[in-house]
Specification:
The protein is an all-beta fold. It contains no helices and 6 strands.
């Protein structure tokens, strides 16, 4: 499973979505709107899940590190 994530950066969130892999241990808990921690460059940062899919849109993806809040913090 894959997630499109808007990462907490200084760029436009609607044009800079990033695809991350959802590790198997998070399959049952991941939902659109949740805040997650992801690797971004040489650091980790928070991001928000804006879409889930079964196919990846890019060749290379990194894994989501953890779900910060089980309850979605953003509305669809």
């Amino acid at each position: 499973m894959y997630a499109d994530i808007v990462v907490d950066t200084y760029t436009d969130p609607w044009t800079n979505r990033f695809t991350y892999s959802v590790p198997p241990e998070l399959f049952l808990d991941i939902k659109v709107g949740q805040e997650v921690t992801v690797p971004f460059g040489k650091r980790t940062t928070r991001g928000w899940v804006i879409a889930l899919s079964k196919t990846k849109k890019v060749e290379y993806v990194k894994d989501i590190i953890k779900i910060n809040w089980l309850i979605p913090v953003l509305l669809p």
